[in-house]
Amino acid sequence: MKLFLILGVINGFLAVALGAFGAHGLEGKIPEKYLKTWQTGVQYQMFHAGGLFIVAFLVDKFTNIGAVTTAGWLFLAGIVLFSGSLYVLSVTQISILGAITPLGGLAFLGGWLLIGYAAIRYL
Prior knowledge:
The longest helix is centred in the middle third of the chain and has 30 residues, at 32-61. The chain has 123 residues and is mostly helical. The chain has 4 helices and no strands.
């Protein structure tokens, strides 16, 4: 539980910091299209920081459900792949980096499916 709680806190903090950086530090330095791409990365990072808090709660409540732990790792992988690729894409404008983003999206989807599975099966 503690690990996913800490990961949620770190990612929530980073999402706020990166959102502020995008709004104030990147404005006028990169095209509007890429500012929107940056914001998408921030939004998904924050949503899934919340997902990590859910995982922390569920792991503490149901210690023997591996699906919940796996969901947490998928959320973290999704943040790195999805949000991370959008951040790098925004500042480098190297469009091939956009090919990584769907892998992060799949990780997010897998994490939510596992949370749903655990809820149906064990709650």
